[in-house]
Amino acid sequence: MLVTDKRCWAEINLAQIVENYRIYKNNLPAQTKVMAVVKADAYGHGDIEIAEILQKEGVSDFAVATLDEAVKLRTGGIKGQIFVLGYTPIRQAQSLIEYDITQAVVDENHAKMLSKFGNRIKAVFALDTGMNRIGLDADNPAFCEKIIRSYIKKLSVQGIFTHLCVADTDSLEAIIFTNRQIEKFEAVADRLSDLNLPYVHCLNSAGGLWTTCSKSRFARLGIILYGLKPSYLNTLPKGIKPALSWYSLVSMVKNVHPGETIGYGRTFTAAREMQVATVCAGYADGYNRLLSNKFYVLINGKKAPLIGRICMDQFMADVTDIPDVKMGTKVTLIGQDGKEVITADDMANKIGTIGYEIVCNISGRVERKYTWTKA
To answer: The whole model's pTM is what?
Structure first.
């Protein structure tokens, strides 16, 4: 029996995070730096822990989505530039100054409001090159230039950035769209070249590997840092692997007879004599309910199909053909057991989502344990 005091936990291999970073960096042009994206608690991996090891690797630039995330990093001892690449309400702007945080400017109105605090606010202007999410309209580069130049003395303008929305897709249509986004970005960057802005970047994880932009001084390394794919069809550089494994335990095993049903809604009916294990994880832990009756876990090196609906805190699995399953047996939700492997990308693909969502949704009640295991 496995000896543990937890019913459900995740293990993050920090050595694999470092290896993923090194491999990715080696695939970039020598002049392109890495900005580590550690938003959403480093995609569920632990933001302080990930930022600390990358800081030791020489990374000095980190990106998050919210001011609270940025302040957590700063008060946790993370130095260098910390960028909030999403909207921060003006009533919180004083904290940007207090904690030395660099703020994305989402549009002209946002710039106007931030400028009330003077040039103590470090700012990077977002450009909308086709995603239609945030930013100045890069279809009009002269307009973008005019706005940005008008705030050079009103804000501490650090740079410009945009986001590539289909850089992970290799269809001709997607490639054309991505190239057009880059052209728009470069047109604005050229108009501002005399300002020598230090933070000019448009490359995300996928963009850094599969596109080029002569003006982008950084690649924002997000999902690939954690060993997952921007798109399920992508092939990552050799050696980049998932850093997170997720485990639970069997709480009991029972015999189920033909004709008996399993779980809420009675969505599974036994067609034979079965042994069914109850596993201590559920959708409140972040184990997606859409996997009900569709996926599997690994127990004693074998696949155990999920049967019945996933509950808030538990689910059931068919262990009829798996020997020696009992109370306390370890269950692999994500990771490797023997020759079998489950990735967050596999899980996501089964239910029509992305690996990002799977790892981000692993809830706070799932303890994170940190290891350092080199392949």
So the answer is: 0.96
Per annotation, catalytic residue among 25, 33, 39, 122: 39
Residue 122 appears among annotated catalytic residues: no
Query: What are the residues whose beta carbons fall under 8 Å from the beta carbon of 76, sequence distance 6 or more?
Result: 47, 48, 51, 52
CB 291 within 8 A of CB 306: yes
Q: Any idea what the Cα angle at residue 132 is, between residues 127 and 136, rounded to 5°?
A: 30
Q: For residues 250 and 277, is the Cβ–Cβ distance under 8 A?
A: yes
199 is catalytic: no
Rounded to an integer, what distance in angstroms lies between the CA atom of residue 245 and that of residue 44?
11
Cα 82 to Cα 103: distance, rounded to the nearest angstrom: 9
pLDDT in tens, 114-164: 999 989 999 999 999 999 999 999 999 999 999 999 999 999 999 999 999
Active-site pick, 79, 153, 254, 264: 264
Instruction: State in Å, rounded, how far the first CA of the chain is from the last one.
Output: 26
Q: List pLDDT tens digits, range 26-81.
A: 999 999 999 999 999 999 999 999 999 999 999 999 999 999 999 999 999 999 99
Contact 51, 83 (CB under 8 A): no
| Rounded (to 5) percent helix, strand, coil in the chain | 35, 25, 40
